[in-house]
């Protein structure tokens, strides 16, 4: 990534281009959580209230989806962790004013959000495993 | 990278070098600059004072007004407690009592908690960011005047015995069938305030994104600014569903469209969903800003940087999004399937984790530092104690079976107030004591502050701790009186007496706040030895915000850069001058805060008052079923806003003014369009909120379909296919024409661009016609199916109307020379609106035209 540079036109567009990947990483984990949540709530409602598909199959399908989503979040977290790069730099907090600090901070952000989303997905899926049927 | 740098690209060195910063400014030059800057930012005097738009003035009025509404709601609580002090009391009637608790709850939540956050943020955020002001000062002023008008209207209703009576969440059918204008006052008055809240949230987010000091990259932002972004984002996603709910609700009350009436296919549960999709995040919208205040006070008290900055930021973000997955836990007793309840119960437990992380990071900071028990810290400590108790009872309530037991008893009232006092009142008080010297340049009294603390703290616990027991003994909430002999008498009396101790505490606090302080010495500039930029403020007060906008390289610049303060004062940094005599601030980039533009900031004006007054009329007249005056007010409001935008926003600068010196050798453009400009970001963020509201209406459609066996009812009339298809085509064409206009204008072909703009407006009008044709066969008051289709059409038609106005505005701009090939900010913003409009119009047409066919086919 670029270090200090002279002021340039369309700075915003360039910055976003430079960090596109880490920004996607930051937003993807919560987005996966939200989609998973909506899928659980929506499909169970459709199964129970509308009877569109059997609840047993719905639950099994959703458990499968949960595993996929968890794997996805874990991967995002791992990429974030690599970007944070705490092993080679030893810097946990990134309080500095350089482009490098910002880059590592965004990695750390992606990593932590992945953790939160991971836990969130697990919590939301527990009822799928522990409760049966529509009652 | 071979592109020639255009003549309006930023030029010069950045970041500034040490030698440049060290170079002194000649004293005469500095004096002249200071004088010019002071003149540009001078607050109006005399009666014109009220036309001020400075964040310092508007923020002060805003917070004092919110405080006033809080005190009104507090007085209502005292009357409630007086009534409940003894069994079978006759102080107020049952109807009055309903008005009191409804208005107490609504005012505390809508007129105090959320606006207070925005008010405080408007006051202190620019200071923290070393900005001169918020990016759109007149928008803050507009928001404030809307808030004042709406708040007085809602609170005032109790004086006329006309207040809403159905509880702060207005459940239908109780509220739809309530007599008198009470429910309408709630719906329209509060919608009006919600719109103002959203406006303020947009402004705060854009302020944080685009008005940071040069060098303040995202990883250096003060924690408060992070919380502003999170909470602003939550407001943007949480309020629109409520507004959508209000929209449907008011259509039912005014025109008898049966959205919540089960006899005609409606469903009261839809309101509950929409209300709580808003209502639970609301709890965090109230609670996170208080944590933000704590996050500023704690490092100062501990005299060290916060421990776990990233952890706190990310937990705040995490709490923000998880809190949207909790809403149904307010609906545990409504008979949803157990698994569904389980999802929400589980998510409610999960949200405790990020909340806990934030609290632990604070504790760790305190333990790692040398804590000074200042008055603000005392309030924070009280907050922690109370909030923890409230959190524990909350965990109990999140367990569905326990909730079945205590649902709607005083246990819930106790829990609610523990979280609200611990999560809001106490931290805000801490914030007031902490930031008061920044705001008023005087210190509050230490002695009175301790008195207020102990009175409120003891009073609070003695009032609300016994209520847990009253609730477990079975006393329901919202009853205006109760028989003796159920074991509730003594507990209630204690609660009532102690409520007056709380009131005494607030009286001491308010006295301290407003007592004349003329004889008192000025506060020291940095009384708490804090490290963040707001404490570079000027004592005695200067209205320019900051003498020169510093270059920042760390999270606590005042601690890390000993030369900073002197250099700011000496005008060594950016924008030390107001050469043109106009108000200006620096716009920087979103991620790295690189300087991009010198933006002109608007000054004092009466136009926000005019616009707010007419907007108020447009919302208030319908409460009394006076639709023509309301429509007239709406037209006047739109005209006032257009006038305001036309005169003072996005005007192309004179050619010699295109580039200006920003100081330290840097030359910056004074005009920006598209993503470089603050206005474009504001539009983008607003459209997110708008899209959320629209999605909520669409959610309503699918909700009816899942929840009802006969939706659409057999043999129902559907939307007219030809009209729907025509509308879809016309809106797509309008979008295409708008886009063509933007391209053509950019390319310097102004005549064809104008033609495209005009044609776009005509196409959009044709789209409106198509939609009218489509819904013509429907009679919305007969059943919820035609009603929701018509509601969707109304939504799109209103937006398309706005879209037409915008296109014509650009056309006029092009003809008048306000919009040129290079100065096309207006057109780019309008294009953004049209992207969203076209997408929602197509979704609407799909629902109108296609969904019925699919649904009647598939459903059993
Ligand atoms: C002087 C301090 C206060 C006292 C004595 C007090 C007292 C009460 C009482 C007794 C009720 C229950 C009324 C009923 O169910 O019959 C209540 C309801 C409520 N209070 Fe407070 N309160 C105080 C401060 C606050 C604050 C600061 C907030 C919010 C920031 C708040 C928010 C609410 C809400 C949302 C309700 C529910 C209203 C409803 O049932 O619709 N209160 N309060
Ligand atoms: Cu909740």
Give the secondary structure arrangement, pairings included.
The complex is a heterodimer of chains A (135) and B (860).
Chain A: H1 11-50, H2 55-84, H3 86-89, H4 99-130
Chain B: H1 18-22, H2 27-41, H3 55-84, H4 94-128, H5 137-156, H6 174-177, H7 182-210, H8 223-255, H9 268-302, H10 309-322, H11 338-350, H12 352-368, H13 375-398, H14 400-406, H15 410-440, H16 446-472, H17 489-514, H18 557-560, H19 564-569, E1 584-588, E2 595-600, H20 607-620, H21 627-648, E3 659-663, E4 666-669, H22 678-707, H23 721-746, H24 750-775, H25 784-816, H26 825-849, H27 851-858
Antiparallel strand pairs in B: 1-2, 3-4
Helix pairs in contact in B: 3-4, 3-5, 3-17, 4-5, 4-7, 4-9, 5-7, 5-20, 7-8, 7-20, 7-22, 8-9, 8-10, 8-22, 9-12, 9-15, 10-12, 13-15, 13-16, 15-16, 16-17, 20-21, 22-25, 22-26, 23-24, 23-26, 24-25, 25-26
The structure holds protoporphyrin IX containing FE and copper (II) ion.
Radius of gyration of chain A: 20 Å
DSSP summary, beta strand count of chain B: 4
Shape of chain A: elongated
Categorize the overall geometry of chain B.
globular
Give a short overview.
The complex is a heterodimer of chains A (135) and B (860). Chain A has helices at residues 11-50, 55-84, 86-89, 99-130.
Q: Which key phrases capture this entry?
A:
heterodimer; A: 135 residues; mainly alpha; 4 helices; 79% helix; 0% strand; B: 860 residues; Cytochrome C Oxidase, Chain A; Four Helix Bundle (Hemerythrin (Met), subunit A); two-stranded antiparallel ribbon; two-stranded antiparallel sheet; 27 helices; 4 strands; globular; disordered N terminus; binds protoporphyrin IX containing FE; binds copper (II) ion
């Amino acid at each position: 990534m670029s270090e200090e540079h002279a002021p340039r036109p369309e700075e915003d567009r360039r910055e976003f281009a430079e960090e596109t990947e880490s920004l996607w990483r930051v937003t993807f984990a919560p987005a996966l959580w939200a989609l998973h949540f909506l899928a659980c709530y929506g499909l169970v409602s459709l199964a129970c209230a509308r009877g569109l598909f059997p609840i047993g199959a719905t639950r099994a399908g959703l458990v499968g989806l949960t595993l996929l989503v968890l794997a996805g979040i874990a991967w995002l977290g791992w990429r974030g962790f690599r970007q944070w790069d705490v092993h080679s730099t030893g810097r946990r907090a990134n309080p500095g004013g350089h482009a490098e600090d910002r880059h590592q901070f965004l990695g750390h952000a992606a990593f932590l959000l992945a953790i939160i989303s991971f836990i969130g997905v697990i919590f939301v899926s527990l009822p799928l495993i522990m409760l049966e049927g529509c009652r | 990278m071979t592109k020639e740098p255009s003549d309006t690209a930023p030029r010069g060195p950045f970041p500034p070098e040490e030698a440049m910063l060290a170079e002194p400014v000649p004293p005469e030059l500095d004096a002249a600059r200071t004088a010019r800057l002071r003149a540009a930012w001078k607050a109006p005097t005399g009666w014109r004072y009220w036309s001020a738009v400075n964040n310092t003035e508007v923020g002060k009025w805003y917070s004092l007004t919110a405080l006033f509404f809080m005190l009104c709601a507090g007085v209502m609580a005292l009357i409630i407690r007086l009534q409940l002090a003894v069994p079978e009391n006759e102080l107020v009637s049952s109807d009055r009592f309903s008005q009191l608790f409804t208005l107490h709850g609504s005012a505390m939540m809508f007129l105090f908690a959320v606006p207070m956050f925005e008010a405080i943020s408007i006051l202190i955020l620019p200071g923290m960011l070393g900005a001169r002001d918020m990016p759109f000062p007149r928008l803050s002023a507009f928001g404030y005047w809307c808030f004042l008008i709406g708040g007085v209207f809602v609170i005032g209703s109790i004086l006329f015995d006309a207040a809403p009576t159905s509880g702060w969440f207005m459940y239908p059918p109780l509220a739809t069938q309530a007599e008198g204008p009470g429910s309408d006052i709630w719906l329209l008055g509060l919608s009006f305030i919600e719109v103002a809240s959203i406006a303020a949230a947009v402004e705060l987010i854009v302020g944080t994104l685009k008005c940071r000091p040069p060098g303040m990259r995202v990883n250096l932002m003060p924690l408060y600014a992070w919380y502003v972004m999170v909470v602003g984002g939550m407001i943007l996603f949480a309020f629109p569903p409520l507004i959508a709910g209000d929209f449907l609700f008011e259509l039912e009350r005014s025109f008898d469209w049966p959205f919540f009436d089960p006899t005609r296919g409606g469903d009261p549960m839809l309101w509950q969903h929409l209300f709580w999709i808003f209502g639970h995040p609301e709890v965090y919208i109230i609670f996170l800003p208080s944590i933000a205040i704590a996050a500023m006070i704690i490092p100062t008290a501990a005299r060290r940087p916060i421990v776990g900055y990233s952890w706190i930021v990310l937990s705040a973000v995490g709490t923000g999004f998880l809190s949207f997955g909790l809403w149904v836990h307010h609906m545990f007793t409504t008979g949803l399937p157990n698994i569904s309840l389980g999802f929400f119960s589980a998510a409610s437990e999960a949200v405790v984790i990020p909340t806990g992380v934030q609290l632990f990071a604070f504790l760790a900071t305190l333990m790692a530092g040398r804590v000074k028990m200042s008055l603000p810290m005392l309030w924070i400590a009280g907050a922690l104690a109370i909030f923890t108790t409230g959190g524990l009872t909350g965990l109990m309530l999140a367990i569905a079976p326990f909730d079945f037991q205590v649902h709607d008893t005083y246990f819930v009232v106790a829990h609610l107030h523990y979280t609200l006092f611990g999560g809001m009142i106490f931290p805000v008080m801490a914030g007031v004591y902490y930031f008061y010297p920044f705001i008023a340049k005087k210190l509050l009294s230490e002695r009175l502050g301790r008195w207020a603390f102990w009175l409120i703290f003891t009073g609070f616990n003695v009032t609300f701790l016994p209520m847990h027991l009253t609730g477990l003994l079975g006393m329901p909430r919202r009853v205006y009186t109760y028989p003796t002999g159920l074991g509730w008498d003594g507990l209630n009396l204690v609660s009532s007496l102690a409520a007056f101790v709380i009131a005494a505490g607030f009286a001491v606090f308010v006295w301290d706040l407003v007592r004349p302080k003329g004889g008192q010495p000025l506060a020291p500039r940095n009384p708490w030895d804090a490290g963040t930029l707001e404490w570079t403020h000027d004592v005695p007060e200067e209205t320019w915000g900051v003498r020169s906008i510093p270059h920042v390289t760390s999270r606590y610049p005042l601690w890390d850069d000993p030369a900073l303060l002197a250099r700011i004062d000496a005008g060594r940094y950016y924008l030390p001058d107001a050469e043109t005599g106009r108000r200006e601030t620096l716009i920087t980039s979103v991620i790295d805060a690189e300087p991009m533009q010198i933006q002109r900031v608007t000054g004092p004006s009466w136009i926000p008052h005019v616009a707010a007054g007419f907007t108020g009329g447009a919302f208030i007249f319908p409460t009394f079923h006076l639709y023509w005056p309301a429509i007239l007010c709406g037209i006047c409001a739109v005209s006032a806003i257009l006038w305001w935008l036309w005169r003072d926003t996005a005007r192309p600068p004179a050619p010699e003014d295109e580039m200006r010196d920003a100081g330290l050798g840097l030359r910056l453009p004074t005009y920006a369009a598209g993503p470089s400009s603050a206005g474009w970001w504001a539009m983008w963020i607003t459209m997110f909120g708008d899209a959320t509201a629209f999605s909520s209406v669409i959610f309503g459609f699918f909700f009816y379909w899942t929840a009802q066996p006969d939706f659409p009812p057999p043999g129902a009339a559907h939307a007219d296919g030809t009209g729907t298809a025509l509308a879809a085509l016309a809106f797509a064409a309008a979008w295409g024409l708008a886009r063509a206009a933007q391209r053509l204008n950019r390319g310097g072909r102004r005549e064809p661009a104008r033609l495209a703009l005009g044609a776009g407006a005509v196409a959009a009008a044709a789209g409106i016609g198509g939609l009218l044709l489509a819904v013509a066969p429907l009679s919305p008051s007969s059943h919820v199916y035609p009603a929701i289709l018509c509601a969707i059409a109304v939504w799109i038609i209103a937006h398309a109307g706005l879209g037409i106005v915008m296109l014509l505005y650009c056309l006029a701009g092009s003809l008048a020379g306000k919009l040129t090939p290079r100065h096309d900010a207006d057109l780019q913003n309008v294009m953004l609106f049209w992207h969203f409009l076209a997408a929602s119009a197509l979704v609407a047409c799909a629902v109108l035209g296609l969904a019925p066919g699919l649904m009647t086919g598939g459903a059993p």
